[in-house]
Amino acid sequence: MTAPAPEGEPITPQGLVALESELAELEGPGRREIAARILAARDLGDLSENADYHIAKEDQAHLETKIKRLRERQRNALIVETGAEQQAVFAFGRTAEVLDEASGQVYEWTIVGSTEANLAQGKLSARSPVGKALLGHAPGESVGVQTPRGRRTYRVQRLID
Question: Which CATH number fits domain 9-79: 3.90.1150.10, 3.40.190.120, 1.10.287.180, 2.60.40.10?
Fold first, then answer.
């Protein structure tokens, strides 16, 4: 992985597409749904004691905050593509089968930027201790890493894609 510019946040091309899709959903249908709720609540009468109105306005504020944060992530996104020199190793944006040598558990992980990391979906942050340790290792190589549960040894089994 090439070192990202200090002002950029590394993201995969797929991560950027997902980010833009989420933004489109929130800015279009999300905003329209909130506007409809506010309008319906206004029709109920006195706004000072209208709980539906206040809840809808609070939800609108949360939605706008989320849109603002996603726009900031989009502005700071630094798309990182896997170069030809990284084809033989576990690199940013690549997917690999990784074996936890102690438990025998095999994971399928893709190394991604911290903003798109989601371990439940197999997306491992390049900035996490395990992600940092695995970067640049070829299939068959093992690496030790200190985790919150103690020292673990992982082996890159094979690269996928």
Answer: 1.10.287.180
